[in-house]
Records
---
Amino acid sequence: MRKIGEISAVVMLLSLGRLAMTIPNLEPIGTAALFGGALLSSRWMKFVIPFVALFIGDLVLSVIRDGYAAHLFSPSFFTIYLAFGLTVIIGNRMIGAEGRMKNVLGAAVTSSVVFFLITNFGSWIDGHGLYPMNFAGLMECYAAGLLFYKNELFGSFFFNSVMGNVFFSTVAFGLYNYYQKVFTPSVA
């Protein structure tokens, strides 16, 4: 039971960590899904704990950020949660309980790409006529998504997502692996 409490606490801290971030999409929420998916042993808790943490963070954001409440339960909300669920699966399948760093890095990048593809597909479907409903329109939506929030200091939403997932996943899994080695008694 101790392990589920520890991992749940890390997932919640990662989820709430996005409240302190000021750079769009450079946040630890993807790491929360990867961490829970990789390290929680219960098939159901792998999803329940990260989704509860994400939803609590969304509720807090809807109170403290102007306009965020309109996002809750919008069509984009559901594509984000779908992509988040797939991130949990990626954490489970690509990282697993050992949390090897090369697997963590691969899962961090893969989950960012999957998140980008799903959420931008959702934007294309619910684009309110912004993009034509054909293959060219979908590609136009993806191209616009790659450039969204581009400025001089930071890349884009997609670049920030990749960098955030890589950075926070490296830190979270690295610290947790260190904690396991130092504070978990070895079986002789």
---
Amino acid sequence: MEEGESIAYLMAPPIEAIISIDFALKNSDTKLVKYFKPPTKTNYSGAYLTGNLSDCIAASDAFLEKVKEIYNNPIENYD
């Protein structure tokens, strides 16, 4: 990570996080610099992604979109 680079800090429950981090990376031009594998002290999972500001915003938006999709349709996403 270079000085001045933006950071996207993404956290969610473990299953949602794994799927959503993958989706965020595929839908933005960011790099994974730190992954918090479950179980953490809070039983969540997450990641730090870096890139320019617009890419970090795109990654955050994609992450949120996928977490909401899983939350709203749990059966379809775990088949």
---
Amino acid sequence: MNCPFCNNTTFKVTNKRDSFEGIRRRRECLKCKKRVTTQERIIESDIYVVKKDGSREKYDSMKLKRGLDKAFEKRPVSKEKQEKIILEIEEQIRKKRKNEVKSRELGELMMKKIKKLDKVAYVRFASVYREFKDIKDFKEELKGL
């Protein structure tokens, strides 16, 4: 890697954090002393999601993120906690060492994690995931809480 300011190739890392996107490193050029942030993502084997109809599609963590964003919208849960949910789910999938996961399994993992953090977000997510048809479905879910 070259410094974008002076083209030097020597840096020192001043800060390192895990994030949803991968590993963020704050680097300081040893020559010009300017700082830059780099993003690193570990590339692993592809995981495929098997849908209800039997079709397969490549796993996309952004789909999980969008689902969480909708569930936690206007709720007092930080983005860091939401990102942690996705990282934990991905870790559970990878531990099984399978290259396929059923969409139902993903949905159930999401629901368990959401339920621990926020009951309102859980009901929001469950209503979409389980395709609630009417108020009766909501009542049944709320009884379980």
---
Amino acid sequence: MALLADVISWAFILAGGALALVGGLGLLRLPDVFARMHGASIIDTLGLGLILVGLMFQAGFSLITVKLFLILLFVFYTSPTTTHALARACLNGGIEPRAARKDSNGEPPSRP
């Protein structure tokens, strides 16, 4: 039974690490602030969530699991809220999404 818990926990931890890596690459490669916010939300919500679930399996039923669950709950509430607030601040500051911008011909800009 302990081997099964270890396998499940490492599967979650590795999946979370992979999503964090993909989100980190998204922060470097995506073209504008709105697309980069998507990469950051992947890291926060999915990557960290899977890592915390894997750590919960590793800890078993203890006070540590309760603390990890509370951290997970906090992240699931705050991460989308902060991403939304940042996107609204960018829109109110006059930053347009890349898809909404047009060049002199009325076409969206080409990808660099």
